[in-house]
Amino acid sequence: MTNLLNDNSKNRALCERCLTDGLLTKVQRMVNISGVDPIIRSQDINSDAIRTLNVKNIIDNWYMVSYLWNEKDSTTIIKIPLKVEKVDEKCKIAYITPVQNGDQYGDELLSNCENMKACKIDETSGKSFIESFYKVYIASYCTMYKDVNAKLSTLRLSNLSHTALEQFGKAELENQKDGFNGYDLLINNFDFDCMWCKSFKINQLGDNVFQITYQPGSKTYKIIITIKKQNNRYLIDKISL
């Protein structure tokens, strides 16, 4: 916080020391979604926030960071739940609850995607293909790999048709022009969080058409996916919003 007031350039090195590699790559995606820095849940900081900063252990390795934007107004409190883990015998911040999920915390909320992590793509039917593809795809986000972008790209190259890849690339480029890197048309977002897995649903609308929905906080995201079969393989052929 003090760096934000005096020399924000120092925060990059601070984050590299104190955040896990996976969270470090996730933070910018979180910024692109909410428009605020998830570490402070704000775009900037003031002296009241620094004076009132408080950190409290909630349960196990979960902590609640809080501060007042206005020291004289208790309604300006900002709360940030986060989880700490040991990495190479050093404590690091491994997870920060997304802004959309308020002050929710707990390992049970992060376990919603556990059954997805072991999934493999199943091409028994069109429905099994799209269900298993999305489970593998969003599990890559939830696992918070350092090289998540490479893993997601490999999945797209293997499971999207040339037409769908062109659609994806065009949407990604349009967002880059607006200054937002990492837009993912398959989820109509910049990131997918473990806490959103419970709301994730796939409904079949037609023979080869499926609706993907999920809800971070109060907003519902909807994506329409059309698939096709080519050379005895299913591929995602069209992505619509």
CATH 2nd-level architecture of the largest domain:
Roll
* Domains, number: 2
Strand content: 15-25%
Class derived from helix and strand content: alpha+beta
Strand order of the largest sheet: 1-2-3-4
Broad shape: elongated
Distance between the termini: 38 Å
Q: Give the low-pLDDT segments.
A: none
Using only CA atoms, what is the Rg? Answer: 20 Å
- Helical coverage, percent range: 25-40%
The counted number of beta strands is 8
CATH class category name of the largest domain = Alpha Beta
Order of helices and strands: HHHHEEEEHHHHHEEEE
Keywords:
2 domains, 241 residues, Nuclear Transport Factor 2, Chain: A, 9 helices, four-stranded antiparallel beta sheet, alpha+beta
Describe this entry's structure for a reader.
There is one protein chain. The chain is an alpha+beta fold and about 240 residues long. It has 2 domains: about 1-105, Nuclear Transport Factor 2, Chain: A (Roll), CATH 3.10.450; about 110-240, Roll (Nuclear Transport Factor 2, Chain: A), CATH 3.10.450. It contains 9 helices and 8 strands. It has helices spanning about 1-5, 10-20, 20-35, 45-50, 105-110, 115, 125-140, 150-160, 160-175; strands at about 55-60, 60-70, 75-85, 90-95, 200-205, 210-215, 220-230, 235-240. The strands form 2 sheets. Strands 1-2-3-4 form a 4-stranded antiparallel sheet. Strands 5-6-7-8 form a 4-stranded antiparallel sheet. Strand 7 and strand 8 (about 235-240) form a beta hairpin. Helix 7 packs antiparallel against helix 8 (about 150-160). The two termini are about 40 Å apart. The model has no long low-confidence stretch (mean pLDDT about 95).
